[in-house]
Amino acid sequence: MNDTTLHVRVAQRQMATADIVVLDLEPADGSALPAFDAGAHIDLHLPGGLVRQYSLCSDPADTRAYRVGILRDPASRGGSVAVHEQLEEGSALQISTPRNLFPLEAGGGKSYLFGGGIGITPMIAMAHSLHHAGRDFELHYCSRSPEHSAFLAELAAAPFADKVFTHFDQAEPPSPADVAALLAGAGADSHVYVCGPNGFMDWVMETARASGFAPARIHHEYFQVEVETGGAGFEVVAEASGKEVTVGPDETIAQALGRIGIRVQMSCEQGVCGTCMCTVLEGIPDHRDSYQTDEEKAENDQIAVCCSRALTPRLVLDI
Fold first, then answer.
1. pTM confidence score
2. 157 in the Ramachandran plot: left (φ > 0), alpha (ψ -120 to 50) or beta?
3. Where does the record place the 2Fe-2S ferredoxin-type domain (predicted)?
């Protein structure tokens, strides 16, 4: 969890495509922004109390501004619509300091970066960092067509432009990525990084595994997942608050805690970001998040209260 917020303003707003807006965010008081590592994201505190996460896509070596690219999602829960309709140049807002759940591995061999659609955003920052470090990499931008793709001119002008490859499913002629061919002959110390729609990510990761990549060399970041939050009711004891509540079949732990006045900071509400993680003191969670690794879930000492439930009748949380 990160409670630190920064006051920024929208210094520049550009509609990169019909449904992707690119925002440059500068500190409102002219001070320097905190440094960040490639793969990091920030929380945007949006009008109406919404908090949403977006990957930083600017060069980590340049902290004069943070850049984010945001797709207007037709299935939006309000976040992307608020960005597109309410944030203009000069708009003031609060953001979190950067958090990184998708870091580059130190050292190693060649890095293969796969960005599907708006999932290209963290890959741009990674490409900048790898270029600065003199490390070998390829950046593969997979999208429907050039008309649906942001950042093309920026990538064409980048100092690593010779390492950028575009793949368009609906171009004429189509040029979809052949991931198996791209990974053929990759060294044993190479790594794959992927971000984008779930189906795209699953395809890239499965192909990487079939190409001989060990799980530890395949890195991914989900930005949207389908998660089932319902189930049988159970009791939650909020140890630090001295309160207890019954979590109903159709509500989350966070919602139940909210009914008794315990507010849990949340962002994604899909078990992706880790913002709402709480320590488990007793009981066994029914983990439904994508944030923790299988090994971390097996320890049963942390729970994502936005989506996970209980395998025991009672959970005691340190909250």
1. 0.81
2. alpha
3. 223-319
